Amino acid sequence: MPRDAAVAPRRSHAERGTAREGTRERLVRAGIVAALERGWAASGVDTVLRSAGVPKGSFYHYFDSKDAFGEAVIDGYQAYFLHRLERCFGAGAQGRPIAVQLDDFLAVSAEGMARHGWRRGCLVGALGQELAGLHEGFRERLLASLTQWEQVLEAALLAARARGELPPATDCRRAARSFWAAWEGAVLRARLARDGAPLREVIEDFRRLVAID
Amino acid sequence: MPRDAAVAPRRSHAERGTAREGTRERLVRAGIVAALERGWAASGVDTVLRSAGVPKGSFYHYFDSKDAFGEAVIDGYQAYFLHRLERCFGAGAQGRPIAVQLDDFLAVSAEGMARHGWRRGCLVGALGQELAGLHEGFRERLLASLTQWEQVLEAALLAARARGELPPATDCRRAARSFWAAWEGAVLRARLARDGAPLREVIEDFRRLVAID
After folding, report:
1. Rounded distance, CA A185 to CA A170, Å?
2. What average pLDDT does the segment A129-135 reach?
3. Which of A104, A141, B41, B199 has its CA 20 to 30 A from that of A135?
4. Do B134 and A181 touch (CB under 8 A)?
5. Chain B contact set for A148 (CB, 8 A)
6. Mean pLDDT of B89-93
């Protein structure tokens, strides 16, 4: 018998770790898509498993319950969205005026929604509406996500204020809260209308509200 | 056997009509509450029937399907909400400045949300997030609801502009769209934070955006 034949390839501990992470990540990604398109109650574990191409037995290997999976889905979306915010508004973006940063965020967001036929909005908006009154753990996690987005934008606004792009008296924390409230509503409006105009309008409104330029 | 004993009271056709309407209205009201608190997928017909105190057989007497019931729920919420908007922003409210009309709307909305422990938001926001990508009939109906709210507010803003409370160049249709986008986001934020501050802030922002006063 030749060497290595009929022998399962041996993998290092690190490689096995990566393989496990791969399945878990596929499940989380499928959960995010399902929650974005159908909400949480209508996102059955079976459907998520099917779309992730993962056998049923695996689910409870990774998650104790659908609730635990939900928490991983919220965390996964948050990691993805913070990455986008970091690109648009993070330290590396501060060579660009805040008006350009906002336009970048608008462009990438509108492009993403249009690509999926406006069927996918924002996970925090979607699950927040569905679960805020039902599930205390989800509510706290979603609020924490939104608060982090506010902090990222607040930092970008403070930097813009320091560069003289905003009036010196601008309350940047308050402005960041206003932005995300208006943005979430605009995402809803864009999904209902299947049109990007509400997203463009909310950016215009914000520039006017905060007297950018 | 005395007259009228052991005889079911005879009701006129009109009375029977009213009784039927009563049951249907109870079902719709229970459906609105369920959808506000739990979203649509998690609102089972059985739960709605129980909370309305209506026997199971009755449901399909009034509605062909859960979808038909959903349409009645959206229409019922719209009638209720338009009544509120009419009180706050309608022709009868035009003796009051638009700033006062907005404060009235804020007060009644925040009071309603607080009374239910911030567990109930806005049906258009909740079902819009959950169903916009799934159910074309619901999406169109929800968008039509929102468009009607925009029209009511636009008319109030036009009246305020005519009274000199807004700059003459104000685009009242655009401003009304901005208001509802920001309001829907603020309702989400208020539900997540279980606090009325986001609602107050969005009214302040709008007054500033539209340069009211």
Report:
1. 23
2. 84
3. B199
4. no
5. none
6. 97
B113 pLDDT more than 50: yes
Show the tokens assigned to A189.
């409006």
- pTM for this prediction: 0.87
DSSP string, chain A: --TTTTSPPP--HHHHHHHHHHHHHHHHHHHHHHHHHH-STT--HHHHHHHHT--HHHHHHH-SSHHHHHHHHHHHHHHHHHHHHHHHHSGGGTTS-HHHHHHHHHHHHHHHHHHTTT----HHHHHHHHHTTT-HHHHHHHHHHHHHHHHHHHHHHHHHHHTTSS-TT--HHHHHHHHHHHHHHHHHHHHHHTSSHHHHHHHHHHHHHTT--
Q: Is residue A164 pLDDT above 60, yes or no? A: yes
Span A145-160, mean pLDDT? Answer: 97
Q: Check pLDDT > 80 for residue B174.
A: yes
Provide the residue count of chain A. 213
The more confident residue out of B18 and A126 is A126
Instruction: Return the amino acid letter for B50.
Output: R
- The span from the CA of A205 to the CA of B41, in Å, is 34
Distance CA B119, CA A130 (A): 10
Interface test with A, best of B138, B192, B205 (most A CBs within 10 A): B192
Give the pLDDT score at B100.
98
Domains and CATH numbers, chain A: 71-209 (1.10.357.10)
Chain B closest CA to A67's CA: distance in Å? Answer: 15
**What's the whole-number average pLDDT of chain A?**
89
What is the maximal distance between C-alpha atoms in chain A?
80
pLDDT exceeds cutoff 90 at B129: no
Residues of B in contact with A192 (CB under 8 A): 128, 132, 139, 142-143, 146
Q: Which residue has the tokens 């009109």?
A: B14
Which of B21, B34, B116 has its CA nearest to residue B77? B34
Residue (of A112, A123, A145) closest to A29 by Cα position: A123
Residues near A60 by beta carbon (within 8 Å), at least 6 away in sequence:
none
Per-residue CA distances from B92 to B79, B85, B86, B208 (Å): 18, 11, 8, 25
Instruction: Supply angle C-alpha B1, B7, B13, rounded to 5.
Output: 150
- Please tell me the distance from the alpha carbon of residue A75 to that of residue A145, in angstroms, as a whole number: 8
